[in-house]
Amino acid sequence: MDDRSNKVILVPILAVLFVMIGYQYICPAGSNSCHLRTRDKLAEDTDEDPPRFTPRFNFSERDLLRRVDFDIRGDDVIVFLHIQKTGGTTFGRHLVRNIRLEKPCDCRAGQKRCTCHRPGKEESWLFSRFSTGWSCGLHADWTELTSCVPAVMGRKEAKKNGRNFYYITLLRDPVSRYLSEWKHVQRGATWKTSLHMCDGRAPTQDELPACYSGDDWSGVTLREFMDCPSNLANNRQVRMLADLSLVGCYNLSFMSESERSHILLSSAKTNLRNMAFFGLTEFQRKTQYLFERTFRLRFISAFTQINSTRAAGVDVDEDVRRRIDALNFLDVQLYEYAKDLFLQRFQFARQQERQRERLRRSTGSEEVHHGQYSSPSQCSLTHTHTHTHTHTHRWQFRVTDSP
């Protein structure tokens, strides 16, 4: 009886182990071959979700729907606007190393840049630090990129005026981003070679005074960092996303401070909303999910949420935190707007996905996989043009990744 009992127990255990081993062999970690392991699993992760999300802003369906007719074989270019200390380096590496492509980027050991050519062409489909380098200047902003990228791409490839440039970026919680930049500068980092070009010229020393003398600002205290009025860390995200030509570039005497702030924030919101895509550092899986569905490109392995950053290890009291908020009051407002739009886009995409799945099941057809937008003109976005919205929706929902 003991032998029989042992066999009865042992057989199902061995069967389970065999299935698990087989699954791991067929679907290794990071593989994109298993549907549940990567794609839709991203939408089911709930560790990033707030308990309940109540939308604060009205957005049109045009604002929420993000599917671009990106033609990697044609002339389309993805342009990555890399804001300092938002996780852009990691995301930039995802773009050149982690996308499943017919012709993957050629990334060679010991070289910072990768070659990202279109299938069958010696032309780049990606404008970023890790593909084309800092061709428009170190950490070029929206004002610099939109005036520089078409010319640079034209020189590199000696054509074409009909390109579509799809701008993308990442944003981060302003306090965390600010503290991360302070720690970065404290260790000796600088962005002294940034051009800050606007309306055809760089700012004068009077318009943009240096915060330190010498080669760098190593060892700067947080108080010293906050005390410099010309510190570009203040409201960096708004400045880098706004059209600076609207406010006289870096000439602070061009208009009043309150008027300048209002125009910068409004411009940053408009440019962000009309970009092909933006993600949030605090929502890595949702960022991956939305990027994949916007461009119809798939990543090979899942993004990882890392919360143990240098900024997270900085212990600041409430008074200091309030001062950081005050120094970054425009970024705080932009991030609230961006987070609301981001989460509404995520839920909108999930609702559409469920509707398509229900329709597919009811019709037994695979033709509805891409939804009801059969015409590219109905779902495509190009450039960064502002669109006129004829109607808005107030979406009421919980942010949940459960299917």
UniProtKB/TrEMBL annotation:
One of its GO terms (molecular function) is heparan sulfate 6-sulfotransferase activity. GO terms for cellular component: membrane. Keywords: Glycoprotein, Membrane, Signal-anchor, Transferase, Transmembrane, Transmembrane helix. The chain crosses the membrane at residues 7-26. It is a single-pass type II membrane protein. Residues 356-386 are annotated as: Disordered. Its EC number is 2.8.2.-. Residues 372-381 have a biased composition (Polar residues). It holds the Pfam family Sulfotransfer_2. Its main location: membrane. It is found in: Membrane. SUPFAM superfamilies: P-loop containing nucleoside triphosphate hydrolases. It catalyses: alpha-D-glucosaminyl-[heparan sulfate](n) + 3'-phosphoadenylyl sulfate = 6-sulfo-alpha-D-glucosaminyl-[heparan sulfate](n) + adenosine 3',5'-bisphosphate + H(+). InterPro entries: Heparan_SO4-6-sulfoTrfase (IPR010635), P-loop_NTPase (IPR027417), Sulfotransferase (IPR005331). 6-O-sulfation enzyme which catalyzes the transfer of sulfate from 3'-phosphoadenosine 5'-phosphosulfate (PAPS) to position 6 of the N-sulfoglucosamine residue (GlcNS) of heparan sulfate. Belongs to the sulfotransferase 6 family. PANTHER family: HEPARAN SULFATE 6-O-SULFOTRANSFERASE 3 (PTHR12812), HEPARAN-SULFATE 6-O-SULFOTRANSFERASE 3 (PTHR12812:SF3). This is Heparan-sulfate 6-O-sulfotransferase.
